[in-house]
Amino acid sequence: MKPMVSKMAAFTLVCGLLLSACGGGGGKGETAQGSGGSAAAGDEKTSITWLNILHTASPPTDTVLNKIEEKTGADIKFSWIPDASKEERINTSLASDSLADIVTLTILDNSSVRNALKSGMFWEVESYLDEFPNLAKISQDTRRSASIDGKLYGVPFQKDLARNGVVIRKDWLDKLGLSVPKTTDELMNVAKAFTEQDPDGNGQKDTTGFMDRSDLIYGAFKTLGSYFGTPNNWQVTDDGKMIPEFETEGYVKTMDYMKALYEKGYINQDFAVTAKTDQQQKFAQGKAGIYVGALFDGKNLLNMAKGVQDNMQLALVNNITSTGNESDRAIWAANNGIGGLLSFPKSEVKDEAELKRVLKFVNDLMDDDVYALMTYGIKGVHYTVDANDAVTITNTDLWQQEVQPFASSRPSETGYKIHDADPLKAEADKLIKENANYGVLNPAYSLESETYTTQGSELQKIITDATYKYLLGKINLDEFKAEVENWKKSGGSKIIEEYEAAYKATQQK
Amino acid sequence: MKDSNTAVMNMNVKPARKVRTDTALDRIKRHKLLYLMILPGVLYFIIFKYLPMGGLVIAFQDYQPFKGITGSPWVGMKHFVRLFTEPTFFMLLRNTLILFALNIVIFFPLPIILALMLNEVRHRLFKNWVQTIIYIPHFMSWVIIVSITYVFLTVDGGVLNELIAKLGGHKISFLTAPEWLRTVYIGQIIWKELGWSTIIYLSAITVVDTQLYEAAEMDGAGRFRKTWHVTLPAIRPVIITLLILKIGSTLDLGFEHMYLLLNSLNREVAEIFDTYIYTAGLKNGQLSFSTTVGLFKGLVGLVLVMASNRLAKKFGEDGVY
């Protein structure tokens, strides 16, 4: 009996040890391989791990990746995080310190991301940028707006300043004899006509004007807000006072406009619970004729409508105002044109030499041919190109599988010669470029507020909920204002104070 | 005499001493194998359940992940003060308790009734067929069930709303109206879990002594009387046990389920502890505060279980421990 027991105990112990050894050994082996690879292979092939955000349904296959690896001389390993769960995944990765050489941080106003950046967990890169030709080209403005407390904790994603606008069914406009709207009133009329005059001609009243989703920012609300002169999150008065957007007249006007759309039935009635994919699907199915969002979505919508609504024609509009005056044109700039940061955690990138190695890789990603790879794919396989560098995607399905997932990982999306030959995409690019002249920046974007960092997202919920309730006619303006007071009481006033102090400090510099 | 006396004394003392020295350790030694067998279970609970509880200390800190537990500043009861002074807390408590009560009052009796009804079905094939059909929803995930309901209930072409409109009624925004949230929530739980929950009751019913039924029949009892006076009393211990277990677990109202139903317009009735912990902690990074909320929720659950267990014992039942 006794020997048997001790045997069993020994066995259990050994098993446990073995297991833990496996776990530990595996981890060690990996890291050893990682650093060993870079040391041994030297300039030949460096290994890069990248915690990246995925905006498509599934990660890309290896075809394009291999080409990118070839061009950059790196061995890239992605860990993809779906965009929809980026907040919790990034937060848990930060909390458990399971990061990679490169971490894509897109939610810079999330409190734990901000705290992590400020805590010195990531390398400060500003002083290194000028050593690399492509990174050196990042403008001072961009560097400043991507900084937190004046420090740049990564390579900023350079995006177009303002990408939003209105996409309208051109064929429906023509059919009903309407012209492309220039003012918000005309837009309302178009929505009315689309709802009431049977634009698809099937004899049934089954269409609406707008097709929106449950998103007050990237959906219709914020873009319409710009047309009514709403500031981008914050407004600074001449005497240095900060006013939150929801205390401005423009915001209330926008709410009234959306409320009218809702009450008259010119918008899908369940927009408050509609997901983006549903919104786009329904638009493609011809259930509505007005889509407010990123202008380049026009091309995707048209693609989706193939075989469902073959006569769909789209008009892109970026010059709507509430007054009709050209001088009032405005469009909010998402994150002031910064798509986020490519950050390098000190726990993974151990020393300066390694940092330079990773920066070199990011720099290479911005080369013309790598940009072409990440945008259009492989020449002859995914696209053809003419003498004017105009690209036609030849195999859309393959492109969607193998190339599209990389699009959001491009460190820079502007300033390349190669472009899309698709007229709708070209039009979108043109309008987006035009938008930059009217971009409304968020003056608080690079300001610091302790309260905003810790409680901002929490407090914003009060406003978001109240706005939805107002739009759906559940509360009136007085009750909305009471909610704003509630916001102030719960910490909003502190945010205002802190921003005003921070703003003053920057003005005095 | 003296000798024999002392001898007797000694003899008396010795076994007494032996009894006294038969401590827990001795018993463990004697039943080594048995204790060895429970060792993995005990280890499991220590390693995966009790050690992680140490992490609860972050409820008393301003926890920053990169500073770790040792480096984060201690803030005492700050997060508890915040929790109990914020209006959110009462909203969370109210919503959680109301849904909990609905769950017990409305959902809990249903499987018992269904099991009794199934028990009366005499056609075996039909009974098996019905059982299989009603078990299926249990294996669907909440995502699927909520999506199905979405398709049925949406105002934009949802089946139910189209029907209401056809019949001349006004469309109801089931998905956003706060007053419909609880109905939808309980309805979905019934749809998903009703069939599956009958299993234990059905098996409890099968062991009821058939002689009791025969005796009842002799006394002229009909079907209903037999159910009321024989079946139900026989399965009462099972019902009580399940009720206590249910009370213990119902405070976990199902994060996934509620999170899928939650939106800006029904938050005032739909936000429960689980969803709040998730958004505040994982999405907004307030790890310490959400730990505080979680700790409080755990305490409430513990109190509920202990209270119901005591209540069960008072009524002469066994309880779960």
TrEMBL record, chain A:
Origin, by domain of life?
A: Bacteria
| PROSITE patterns documented for this protein | PROKAR_LIPOPROTEIN (PS51257)
Q: Which UniProt keywords apply?
A: Signal
Q: Which CDD domains match?
A: PBP2_AlgQ_like_1
Q: Where does the signal peptide begin and end?
A: 1-20
Stretches that traverse the bilayer? none
The answer to whether the entry has keyword Cell membrane is no
Q: What is this protein called?
A: Putative aldouronate transport system substrate-binding protein
Automatic annotation (TrEMBL), chain B:
ABC transmembrane type-1 domain location = 93-308
Which subcellular locations apply to this protein? Cell membrane; Membrane
Q: Name one GO biological process term.
A: transmembrane transport
Q: Which Gene Ontology cellular-component terms appear in the entry?
A: plasma membrane
User: Mind telling me what this protein is named?
Assistant: Putative aldouronate transport system permease protein
Specify where it is mainly localized: membrane
Entry keywords, A to Z: Membrane, Transmembrane, Transmembrane helix, Transport
* Membrane topology classification: Multi-pass membrane protein
Residues annotated as transmembrane: 33-51, 97-118, 130-153
Which Pfam family is one of those matched by this entry?
BPD_transp_1
Q: Please state which protein family the record places this protein in.
A: Belongs to the binding-protein-dependent transport system permease family.
Q: Which organism is it from?
A: Paenibacillus rhizosphaerae
